[in-house]
Amino acid sequence: MTCGLARFVRRGRLAGQILAKWPDQLRPDDEQAIRLLPAAAWQAAVGQDGVVQQDKHVAEITHVLSRAGRWPDGLRWIVRRIKPSRRQARNLTAFERATGWRYSIIVTNIPDTGITEVPGSHHAQFIDVLHRQHAVAEDGARAGKSMGLRNLPSKTWVVNCGWVLAANLAADLSAWCRLLGLYDQDDLQDAEPDTLRYRLLSLPARLVRHARARVLKISRTWPWKEAFLTCWQRLCALPAS
Length: 241
Prior knowledge:
Blueprint: H1 3-10, E1 19-21, H2 28-36, E2 43-46, E3 52-60, E4 76-82, H3 86-89, H4 94-99, E5 102-108, H5 124-132, H6 134-146, H7 157-181, H8 193-201, E6 205-210, E7 213-218, H9 225-236
Antiparallel strand pairs: 1-5, 2-3, 3-4, 4-5, 6-7
């Protein structure tokens, strides 16, 4: 999100709602605004399922952000803080290392009165949840690439159409497999396609014949043997239509 794009939207040339992430790296005026926030301004964040997350917090910094005055009227800035992971710790600013939190800022044109007929939509927690829902679309795009979309384009339109269809079918089957067969498996219910390939689809096993029947012999030491069997039995128990 840039100042010019925000002005373009606010002038009405592009109808829609602004809900964009600020640059990943905090700037000095961002850090100064966060310093000015009183401890009481931070409120516990809320997850996508409505559960309060006591280890994550959000607050509005519009009134203390010096840069806000140079942007179009009607915009609001919401800051979120979380405890950084080890991977994120390498990219923290000196300010973030000193406070022990990792900060991210989003800008929106949702007014402080909220969205019409949406109770509670003026709260920072609502705006934070609404923004984080975008990650669902990003997860879908990443899953599609893992299923073969990253190999596009091909030389012909027909091949591209067939490849996109096959990749989307694979992504759908993966999603339904997790939803119907792995819903209670903590490490697999939200697994990425590459994880499913390694743990379930490429499991060490042999298909043998015995007494006129085919038997799948799975390695006894494979950590996800029971998860595979549970998923297989649930999918086989589904009605045919």
